[in-house]
Specification:
Number of helices: 21
Radius of gyration: 25 Å
CATH architecture of the largest domain: 3-Layer(aba) Sandwich
Structural class: alpha/beta
Number of strands: 28
CATH topology of the largest domain: Rossmann fold
Distance between the termini: 54 Å
Strand order of the largest sheet: 4-3-5-6-7
Largest sheet: 5 strands, parallel
CATH superfamily of the largest domain: ANL, N-terminal domain
Low-confidence stretches: none
Length: 648
């Protein structure tokens, strides 16, 4: 039955008042907020916001890490028919100007001093922003800015308002309808200003319910909320599905304690983009490099068993008794301890999304008994479009369309989606809305792909990024940069990659090394270095990365469609690609156009046959200062392999 987020919350509070709704780790101790306490907090915040002047249809900015009182603030805004707009907490202050002015935002609730400082910095450009409340008072005692107050003051005002107007909150909740706007999420803005994606209660709740039914989620699940609330993926898993299912959402103490908190909680339902799974595996591989000979042998021996047996067990396929016994021993001595180290012992369902995951990385987790699956969706589709069923998880697909979803592929190979979870519009941008939504309700995803014989969707790349090689041995061959980049990023030594090749005869690449993994590798070889830039340009590191690139090339050579995408030359950038420098979005997606323009001199050097190229790059440091990073970058040639033609 159609409903709203606040009504869902109130139903849980009525049916299970003393059950845990949210937990937050503070000073090393987990604090629990029950559904009853949450309902009281939401009522007081809503009344406080109403007293401050927040009206139906207006927007409220929410900025910070996952925190119970910030979740309550979003529910409070929705109770009044207002619209919460979560923004990325790690964004630079200038990135807040467009969304705040575009949505004409007058009210903000933020986590701490860092977010307060950023909003105060842009206040002259955002003249309509008049009230800012903060959750964490540390460092803010002597601030005397007009309109700035602690969240406790808002709660106290709301408590007084509720006492004076006892029927107000309940009446406002009843006024809000399922088709009213529930939230607005700003896209990452890879090609320009971000767009505000408008969703109703119905679109978000419908997709949350469909996903929950697909994986049989219950109120018994435990979830760790550690990704940015401004990303719709985190919002669906830790907000929409939380309110649909009534499970417990756990908020880590800080970004630096996530791995510890993951072990504390032992989530049963887990969601992470590929980069998080890559990071976990990199940590494991670094530890194994430092392990003794016996542990190393056990690890590699039983991982070979896992690669052979694990995926078949996960997919429900027949496995011989000897293989089962061998795998059981491996579970006891390697896989079980490994899952425990990762904090994933209790995981029943794990999903990855946001971009394609490398097949080897995907197989690694499934081989050790973690039910890792892929899903497909976007901000505009409320995430859940395709999901992989248990026993049908494939490395090269993103699952089957779930309940309510229709998919068709256009003549150009673009995927079109029809779903109850489609956006209402792009806020104040009818031209952009018309570009993606057809008159008969189909959404243009911008992704290129196809449905395989089993009904699973296979994504090739972003449609606009899929190109063609021109000239050379592979003239007119397809070039899918993201596919190549994901293969490179499987290696623990490579953190980020940008493949270049559209309308060129060959493919070249920029590489970012993983500083921790390569640093550990260098230290074990007594190779001194004085920081990232120095380490990246060591000849030994260039050789290490060349071996990785050539392994990828050998793999690509056996793919008829992508054999031409082998990397002929590459260089290791002198700095890590950074969202603060505009090179990545806040969800760590590569901004190809910006990078191509910024590093045009390096692109030219790769294709002009140069052996090295000097480059200077402006950077922003964490403390806000600007500076320059300069280096003479070595360009490395990689071995290419003849395309392997498969027998007809």
């Amino acid at each position: 039955m159609p409903t709203t987020f606040t009504r869902l919350m109130l139903e849980h509070a009525a049916q299970r008042p003393d059950a845990a709704a949210l937990r937050e780790k503070d000073y090393g101790i987990w604090q629990t907020l029950t559904w009853r306490a949450l309902a009281t907090l939401v009522r007081e915040l809503a009344c406080g916001l109403a007293d401050a002047g927040l009206q139906r249809g207006q927007h409220l900015v929410v900025i910070g890490e996952n925190r119970p009182r910030l979740y309550a603030a979003m529910l409070a805004a929705q109770s009044l028919g207002a619209v919460p707009v979560p923004l990325y907490q790690d964004a630079a202050s200038a990135e807040y100007v467009f969304p705040i002015t575009n949505a004409e935002i007058a009210f903000a609730i933020v986590e701490d001093q860092e977010q307060v400082d950023k909003l105060l910095e842009v206040r002259e450009q955002c003249t309509q922003l008049r009230s800012v409340w903060f959750d964490e008072p540390r460092g803010l005692r002597h601030y005397a800015e007009p309109g700035l107050a602690p969240l406790d003051a808002l709660i106290a005002a709301g408590r007084a308002f509720d006492a004076a107007h006892p029927g107000f909150f309940d009446a406002e909740v009843q006024k809000t309808q399922p088709d009213d706007v529930a939230a607005m999420f700003f896209t990452s803005g890879t090609t320009g200003n971000p767009k505000g994606v408008v969703h109703t209660h119905h679109t978000l709740i419908d997709r949350a319910q469909a996903g929950a039914a697909f994986d049989k989620l219950t109120s018994a699940e435990e979830v760790l909320a550690y990704l940015p609330p401004a990303w719709i993926g985190q919002n669906i898993f830790s907000y929409a599905q939380w309110l649909v299912c009534g499970y417990v959402v756990n908020c880590p103490e800080s970004a630096s304690t996530v791995s510890i908190d993951l072990n504390d909680i032992g989530p049963t339902y887990y969601f992470a983009p590929p980069r998080v799974f890559e990071g976990l595996l990199t940590t494991v591989m670094i530890r194994m490099e430092d392990a003794g000979a016996v542990k190393k042998w056990l690890f590699h021996h039983f991982m070979a068993v896992a690669r052979h047996v694990g995926p078949r067990l996960m997919d429900g396929q027949p496995v011989g008794a000897l293989d089962r016994l061998h795998y059981a021993i491996g579970r006891l001595v390697v896989y079980g301890p490994l899952r425990n180290t990762l904090g994933l012992t209790r995981v029943r369902v794990a999903y990855t999304a946001g971009e394609a995951i490398g097949p080897d990385l995907f197989s690694f987790y499934r081989s050790i008994g973690i039910n890792l699956k892929q899903l497909y969706g976007s901000t505009e589709t409320a995430v859940f479009v395709c999901l992989q069923p248990d026993h049908e998880a494939k490395a090269d697909t993103v699952g089957v369309p779930i309940e309510g979803v229709q998919i068709r592929v256009s003549d150009t190979g673009e995927i079109l989606v029809k779903s109850p979870g489609l956006l209402k519009e792009y806020y104040r941008n009818p031209a952009a809305t018309a570009e993606v939504l057809t008159a008969d309700g189909w959404y243009h995803t911008g992704d290129a792909g196809f449905l395989d014989a089993g009904g699973h969707l296979k994504i090739i790349d972003r449609a606009k990024d899929v190109g063609r090689l021109m000239g050379g041995a592979f003239d007119a061959a397809m070039f899918a940069p993201k596919y190549v980049e994901n293969k490179l990023k499987f290696f623990p030594f490579i953190k980020e990659a940008v493949a270049i090749g559209d309308r060129r005869a060959t493919v070249c690449a920029f590489i970012n090394i993983d500083f921790e993994a390569v640093g550990n590798w260098a230290e074990r070889r007594n190779l001194p270095y004085a920081g990232y830039a120095d380490l990246a340009q060591k000849p030994e590191v260039s050789e290490l990365i060349r071996e990785c690139v050539e392994k990828v090339n050998a793999d690509l050579a056996v793919d008829e469609k992508l054999a031409g995408s082998q990397i002929s030359r590459f260089l290791i950038l002198q700095k890590q690609l950074d969202a603060d420098d505009g090179e990545l979005t806040r969800t760590r997606k590569v901004r190809r156009g910006f990078i191509a323009e910024r590093y045009q001199v390096l692109v030219d050097a790769l294709y002009d046959g140069k052996a090295n190229q000097y480059v200077e790059t402006a950077v922003k440091f964490e403390d806000g200062r600007s500076g320059m990073v300069a280096a003479d970058l070595k360009i490395v040639d990689a071995k290419l392999f003849p395309a392997v033609k498969r027998a007809a």
